[in-house]
Amino acid sequence: MPVDAAGALAAAPRVREIAWDHKDVQLYHLGIGAGRPATDPGELRYTLESRLHVLPSFATVAGGGVPGVIGALSVPGVDVDLAHVLHGGQRLRLHRPAVPVRGRATASSRVVAVYDKGSAAVLVLRTEVADADGPLWTEEAEVFVRGEGGWGGERGPSGRPSPPPAEPADHVVERAVREDQALLYRLSGDWNPLHADPEFAARAGFERPVLHGLCTYGAALKAVVDTLLDGDVTRVREYRTRFAGVVYPGETLRVRMWRGPGADGAGAGETEETGETAETWEARVAVSAVERGDAPVLADTVVRYG
Fold first, then answer.
1. Which one from 190, 212, 226, 300 is the annotated catalytic residue?
2. Which entry of 37, 76, 221, 303 is 20 to 30 Å from 259 by CA?
3. Which of residues 135 and 76 earns the better pLDDT score?
């Protein structure tokens, strides 16, 4: 059986040392569409080393290793065709107010869940990253493997995206995706040919190469930070999404944002490190492709911030 759930869950964590500096951060920011207009002060905080702030979603590429959607396929008990793999969802939880501009850390990854959806298997790969001062962030990648379900395992939570809120969004912004955006983004470490090779994309069932889901993920978070947080990346606490559809380079992303319940979305939450109550806000986000009739591309998307 290509997916051995017991073997994948029992496998020892994969531990590796990672390091990054300002050049990696700047390349990532350019890869998700930062720097337009190039001299805009709001964009220079993503592109100019003397003013650099790290968008938290950089955590998905820090160290330049294989992304979670690929890492989940390299554990014992998993032997599948990459063309049958889809990135189902991503979650990031930050343990400090900011991701450092440069750093050296240890990343420990392991499969923490394997679900049987009948027509597909779903693997959840969790990666915990810490440096000499303690935990930095935790991320989880949810990976769908088409055609590998049906062994009678636990189905797990529903993978069906929920519709966006019925009320009008509080904010709507549009972001153009460059024709070469996927070629630029893949320089941060995701070399999956689905995003560059037309023949591979066709074998996977797409009319042409598609944008990385994590590129859309980063672009959407940037839109939220710029629109709701006045560019203050240190306010982000958690970010999660489901990948509901593809984006083709050259399209336009429409990002709709709703503040959570309460005055200005205000609420209370406990900080993980201290257990003390801290004021947090929540933004619900939906992202669609404008040119294809607002086809959904990110769903069940939530940004928690302080």
1. 190
2. 37
3. 135
